[in-house]
Specification:
It catalyses: oxaloacetate + acetyl-CoA + H2O = citrate + CoA + H(+). Helices cover 56% and strands 3% of the residues. By secondary structure, it is mainly alpha-helical. Strand 2 and strand 3 form a beta hairpin. It is globular and about 75 Å long. The chain starts with 20 loop residues before the first strand and ends in a 28-residue tail after the last helix. The structure holds carboxymethyl coenzyme *A. The site of carboxymethyl coenzyme *A has 21 residues, from helix 16. Carboxymethyl coenzyme *A is lined by residues 9, 193, 196, 227-229, 231, 255, 261-268, 317, 319, 322-324.
Length: 389
Amino acid sequence: FGLMTYDPGFTNTASCRSAVTYIDGEKGILEHRGIPIEQLTEHSNFLEVSYLVLHGHLPTQKEYDEWVYDITHHTYVHEMIKRFMDGFRHDANPMGMLLASVGALSTFYPEARDTSDEFQRYVSAVRLIAKMPTLAAFAYRHSLGLPYVYPDNDLTYTGNFLSMLFKMAEPRYEPDPRIEKALDVLFILHADHEQNCSAAAVRVVGSAINDPFTSVAAGVAGLYGPSHGGANVAVLKMLERIKSADNIPDFLQSVKDGNERLMGFGHRVYKNYDPRARIIRGHVDEVLEATGKSSPLLDVAIELEKRALDDEYFTDRKLYPNVDYWSGIIYEAMGIPTDAFTVMFAIGRTPGWTAQWMELMNDEEFRIARPRQIYTGPRQTDYVPMGER
Ligand code: CMC
C-alpha cells in the first residue's frame, strides 16, 4: 500500500489547517480565535462570539450592531418550513427534525449553491445562525404538541430562544437573567471545537462543493450520535437509571467490566478536566435557584463524579468529565425534555460549523475529501448463477 497511512478514527491525521479553535488537551485549554473561553464566557455573549468565530476578530461597535441587526432580521423561517415540520410524527425526535429542516433550507435558498459568491456565503452564515434557534424551538414545541411561537426580535438572541421554547401567553415571555446567562454560556462553550465528528462531516460534505445548509445538515447528523452531542441525553438517562448514590458502586463496576461507558466522561483530545465542564458546572446551582427546583439527579452526578475521579480505572485512562456531563443537568432543570438536549448543542455549534465551512471554501489547498482504504475482501471471484449457489 505504499506510503498510505492506516489511521482508523483519524486519531493522528490533520485533515486541514485551521485558525478557528485552539485546544490543548493535556492542559485543558480551549480558545476561540485565540481568546480563552474563560474570558469569553465572563465578558462576551454568544452573538459576539459567533462574530468572532466566523470573522476571526472581535467586532467594533459598528460591526457588532450590524451583525446583531443582520441576525435579528433573519430569525423567521418560511411558512412552508413550518408545514414541513408539521409533517413529522407527534413523537419525532427533535434532533431528527432539526437535521431534516436544516437540510431543507438549502431548497429555500438555492442561490447558496453558488459557493463562490461572497455575499451568498455571508448571508447563508447569517441565516443559519439566525434560524437555528427557530427550527430548534419549533421541533421542541412539535414534540410537545404545542403551537409554534414566532421569534420576538426585541429580546436577545438567547432570550428570544427561551421565549420560543416556553412562551405560553401574551404579551411576552420574560426570561430569567440567570437562566438566560447560563444558556448563553453553554452556547459560547459549544461555539466551536475544531475537527470533531460533526465539523469533520461539514468539511467532508462541503468539499464536494456543497452549500452551507447541506453541509451543516451533515454536521447536525454527526452531532446526533451518543458518542458526540447525543452524550448529554445519554448522561441524563444514565443518571436516571442509577437513581440513587447507593447504586453507584455497582454501576462503576459494570463500566469497569466493559459492559457500558460512563457517559459524559472521556474525550479524544482532553486528557484532563474539560475546561467547558468546569465553567458550566459553576452555573448549575444558579439555574436550580432560578427555577426553584431541587434535582435529585444532581446529587447522584456529584457523587458519581467524585468516585470516578478517585478511581484508578478512570485516572489511568485519563477519563475526566466532559461538557456533556453537566449540560444535561442544566437543561433538565430548565424544563427541557431529554430528547431535545442535543438541539441546544446544535444551536451553539452553528457558528463553528459555518466558520469551518467558510475556512474550507477559502483554503487554497481545497480538494475533495476522499480518504483511502485498505481492502480486505476477496478478489477475482466468479459470479455464480442463482441455481448453483
Ligand atoms: N467510560 C468508560 N471507559 C471509557 C470511556 C467512558 N466514557 N471513554 C473511554 N473509555 C476507555 C475505553 O474503554 C478505552 O479503554 P481500554 O484502553 O482499556 O480499551 C480507553 O478509555 C480509550 O477509549 P477510546 O474509546 O479509545 O477513546 P476515544 O478517544 O476513541 O473516545 C469518546 C472518545 C468521547 C467517544 C469516549 O471517551 C466516550 O465514549 N465517552 C462517552 C461519551 C461522551 O461523553 N461523549 C461526549 C464527548 S464531549 C462532547 C462532544 O464534543 O461531543
